[in-house]
Every structure is written in structure tokens, then in C-alpha cells.
Amino acid sequence: MNVPKTKICSSCETAFSCGDVSPENKCWCNDYPPIFNLADGGDCLCPECFKEACEDKIDAYIETITPEKALKNKAMLLPKTNHLIEGIDYYIENGNYVFKAWFHLKRGTCCGNNCRHCPY
User: Fold this and answer.
1) 9 CB contacts (<8 Å, ≥6 apart)?
2) pLDDT digits (tens, 9 = 90+) for 79-88
3) How many whole angstroms separate alpha carbon 19 and alpha carbon 66?
4) Going by fewer Cβ within 10 Å, which terminus of the chain is more open, N or C?
5) Domain residue spans of the chain
6) What CA–CA distance (Å, rounded) separates 102 from 76?
């Protein structure tokens, strides 16, 4: 059985558990898109700082996307997941899910529904 390690966030200096004791033996951070190189962030970040860093990196990438670039984007080349992350894949507005550009880019095509954040 894996035992989670206690680490200190390199950004906010909060203690957090790194590692997972689930049957899959994977850490909570594996639910996030694999968009960081190990050299990018130094040591581990806590869940809150890691999510914020992912959002920032994705938002910066989205700003570079044109409809032409969207057809062959980095997001659609990442491993497919069914797990959606609030703030990265969607946000909730008036009780409704609003899918963000990252969600659409991961899908790889336009659905034709005139989505608010469609990059295509």
C-alpha cells in the first residue's frame, strides 16, 4: 500500500499530501492535463496552486489559438480523459455548465452548436 508523502508547496508553502493510496496508485495531480515539464515548476505545488498554474498556462496557450491553429492543437494530442475540471474545462453560470476553449480543443472538432468559447 502506498503512503502519501507530505510536501510543502513551492509557491504558497502550505503542507499537502503528495501521492495517492487509491487502487490505481496515482496522485491527485494526474487528474490534470499533463502540460508541465518537470523543469517548469521546480518542486510540487499544492492542489490549489497547481490548479491555478494549470489555468494560467492553458489561458496563455488559448490566447495564441486561431481557428486555423485549433485544427491541430496540443490539447487534442494529450491522453483522453473523462474527468472534467471546473475552471479548466468548464465553469458554472446560472446553474449551467459553460465549456471553455480547452474543453473544445481537447475534443478536436467543432460540434456546430455555436458554443460561446469555441476556438474553431
Assistant:
1) 15, 16, 44, 45, 46, 49
2) 887 789 999 9
3) 37
4) N
5) 1-53, 64-120
6) 9
